[in-house]
Amino acid sequence: MKLLSATWFLAATALAQTRPVALQGGTVLPVSGPAIPNGTVILRDGKIAAVGAQVAVPAGALVIDCRGKYVMPGLVDAMTSLGFAANDLNEPSNSLTPELRAIEAFNPFGTMGSGKYGPIRLTESLSGGVTTMYIAPADNSVIGGQGAVVKTAGENLESLIVREPAAMDLALGDPPKKAANQRQRDPATRMAQAAMLRQMLIKAQEYQRNRAANPTAPRDLGMEALGRLLRKELPGRVQANSATDIRSALNIAQEFGFDLIIDGGAAAWELRSLLASRNVPVVLGQVSHPWVSNEEIPDKADYPPVDEASAAKLKAAGVKIAIASFSRSFGSLAPAGSSKWLLLDAAVAAGYGLSEEDVLRFLTLAPAEIMGVANRIGSLETGKDADVIVLDGPPLSVKSWVERVFVGGVEVHSRQRP
Amino acid sequence: MRIPIVVLLAAAAWASAQETTAIRGATVHTAAGPPIPNATIIIRAGKIAAVGAGAAIPQGARVIDAQGKHITPGMIDEHSHIGAKATDLNDRPMIIGPQHRILDALDLNDEQWKEAMRGGVTTVITGPGSGENVSGQALVIKTFGDDLPKRILTERGGMKFAMGPKFPDRYPATAMGVAANLRQYLIKTQEYTASWKKWEEGDKKGNPPARDLGYEAMAEVLAGKQRVRAHVHSATDVMTLLRLKDEFGFDLTLHHSTEAYKVAPEIAKRGVNAVVMPLGPRIGISEDVLEGPTVLWKAGVRIAMHTDAPVLQQKWLRLCAAIAMRYGLPEAEALKAVTLNTAQIARVADRIGSIETGKDADLVLFDGPWYEPRSRVEMVFGDGVLLYDRQKEEKK
């Protein structure tokens, strides 16, 4: 009994923050406000307790000298399919599966049959400074299922979850077409995609009416989930890269009155005025990934030539944007960048009309706001989760490394190698 | 009097080639020595006439002010497939086809030439793919200009080997089969050369031996006139190539070289080069592989970067070098890996690869450090002509 409680105590100290941390003397980039040279950030009880130039260090705090370093919020990767086994990325049997939940395929525990007991650390993402990410089924289905916002480190799977479900995840264009063609089922065309989606949403409207009239009518999980979309409890995130698909998404969202987020958005800049006027945010992917060629983008036919200035054009038009990695974990030929390179991929956009502040906001606060989790993460503000990264140089330089990563005030990653 | 327009154009081209240009004020990264701050580069007749902090600007020279900018040599991509259709790159059933030449599939209208140039890549080694164990001959070619013969630096741009391809249903289906098949072909090449030598030394009496384009091409490799560019990922296959080199004595450059770092001393000992940073830094490429270029450099291996364009966009060649820097490669070595080293490996360092007097005036002007993701190419000069000017392009 004694032994057991001692073990429990050790584990607990490793998992939750027990001692305040003071990150002292660095260039603090809160994102929510201007840079603070020679600033200090206090992490206490898993939250940010103070941020500023003149901040008192609490008694007993672990003081970390950050002089010459950069301190900023952990990055938020607003689109990934990380943690999915390759055969769990898509439900191949049907293109309309709103009942699926990404969290039920999410595996942060490592390869089957190996690994040790202990807290969860998604090292690849943490090494790039990513502390929160959106996970969704991949893009082979028109309605893929429900995505979630999770952290990349924590005590257990439950503690990783920030918001679940966080969105209804959809895709238009080539990927669902291609998947359907391979299996000789619908939708074979863009017309069929739009019609199937409309029919499904109409069915969902009818289902909500029927259930309201007759509460003992048989339940349907998919229809219930779509009900949350129609009641605006969840946004609809539609992967749409070509202008045609973005237009369809805008039309259908308006017709059924749900909150829309465009994912991918390679051609979104062409429709920037419309997106701005409808207040539809865009989570950009791949357009700024130097490591992705047109050849390897799976829905190549959907892509206009890669335009690194997309982000700047959308921003200038007043569209709310984030930049995400669109990472998938299937080996060395993943079609998109990795979370590990998110900061450097986005740095390219700073050469194409974005300021450094823009780039950092599009990787932190902007995605947190778009995903409805900015009350907890995305900036260095008192009361938010103590998810903080320390870099050894300017964040957008190829030479800079993420040296330390804190999630909930606990140091969950530090750079091991020189 | 009417002067034919062709003559006028030719005269204009001649004038621009003869014109003297001075670029002053930039930090010049020559690749042949330490960076020169506030330097002047004098360009005359398409060549670099002078470079240095105190280079005098001749009277009448066109002066370009480049204060605060960074200038590097035109970059060189040692492994790409631009200028040919994807369907023309591989003749898989052949398995060994040294007689194939990328020259015979070259498409000068490919948009990728222009994209490469605008990205600061002024010369590429472009060649056949890796669908066969020997897929043919690459070209060393500039990415700009209308005059094809002038663009080509050498037609002997390398014989492409590939240790990857195997055939599940026919020979060779294993790494052992690939090695034995290559060895057998090289032996046959030796015998072919010997039969010709015998005929020539016998005063060319009787019928000459039957010509074979494949053996003829491979004979150039064995004679040292042509070099080998070998697609290879595993350390085991690297060792097979080194063994073949020991047996047949050819000039060898490893390509992709994913696991080459695991056998770095063996590679260095034989003076073999390595083209590194496979497929850019992606998910699944381990930290160990990302440190590979530095490990190889420390062991004394001459390294160069590649994009495998269109796999990566050519304009990010510089970022392949930058990522190697991130993993420990000194800046000067990283720059050489996209300029001088590549020129040396491709045997064209007398013409290109560094900013030195007498070399072709292929230059790239950046608005910040050449290795930073956020820096942009501002100007590109090729053979002394201003090919790309970002300010002007963006005004269009």
Describe what is shown at a glance.
The complex is a heterodimer of chains A (about 425) and B (about 400). Chain A is an alpha/beta fold and about 425 residues long.
Describe the overall structure.
- The complex is a heterodimer of chains A (418) and B (396).
- Chain A is an alpha/beta fold and 418 residues long.
- Chain A folds into 2 domains: 6-73 and 380-414, Urease, subunit C, domain 1; 75-370, Alpha-Beta Barrel (TIM Barrel), CATH 3.20.20.
- Chain A is built from 12 helices and 19 strands.
- Chain A has helices at residues 2-15, 123-127, 157-160, 174-182, 190-213, 221-230, 243-256, 272-277, 310-316, 342-347, 356-362, 365-370; strands spanning 21-28, 36-44, 47-52, 62-65, 70-73, 75-81, 120-121, 130-135, 143-151, 153-154, 161-171, 236-240, 260-264, 282-285, 321-324, 327-328, 388-391, 402-407, 410-414.
- In chain A, the strands form 3 sheets. Chain A has a 9-stranded mixed beta sheet with strand order 15-14-13-12-11-9-8-6-16. In chain A, strands 1, 2, 3, 4, 5, 17, 18 and 19 form an 8-stranded mixed beta sheet that branches.
- In chain A, strand 18 and strand 19 form a beta hairpin.
- Chain B has 396 residues and is an alpha/beta fold.
- Chain B has 2 domains: 5-73 and 358-395, Urease, subunit C, domain 1; 75-345, TIM Barrel.
- In chain B, the strands form 3 sheets. In chain B, strands 1, 2, 3, 4, 5, 16, 17 and 18 form an 8-stranded mixed beta sheet that branches. In chain B, strands 8-11-12-13-14-15 form a 6-stranded mixed beta sheet.
- The radius of gyration of chain B is 22 Å and the shape is globular.
- Chain B starts with a helix and ends with a helix.
- The model of chain B is unreliable at 6-12 (pLDDT under 50).
- The A-B interface holds A 124, 290-291, 293-296, 306, 327-329, 331-334, 336-341, 344-345, 347-352, 396-399, 401, 417 and B 279-285, 287, 309-313, 315-316, 319, 322-323, 325-326, 371-376.
